[in-house]
Amino acid sequence: MISNIFFLTWLGFTVYAFFVKSIFKINQHALYAAGVLGLFIPIFKGIQSNLWFWKSFSMGYPDSFLVDVSWIWMSVITLLAAWKAKPIEKKRKVKDEVEEDGLESVSEKVLSWQVCT
Q1: Closest Cα to residue 81, out of 31, 41, 34?
Q2: d(CA 33, CA 86)
Q3: What is the pLDDT of residues 23-43, one digit of tens each?
């Protein structure tokens, strides 16, 4: 059952990424999804085993406490990274320079580059 859930989630996100076509949006949404799912891991473990992270350390399970707190911290860091992420500005192309500066200035730039080399 877990493999089916994993496959369907992977397939759904792949189809989503095919239609979005923005690397920034895909990465940002993947970080948000990973952060939220990472926060659910200690919650689901606590529901299943009734060993919540705030009880596990006092009951003598420091390794369980450390794993749960690590999941929480990594999830919070991932959510902050997704929230603070900004798209990288694209570099200007020669076509943009032709439209803004005119053909003469671009040809002068090319000639000056050839003279320098």
Answers
A1: 31
A2: 17
A3: 899 999 999 999 999 999 999
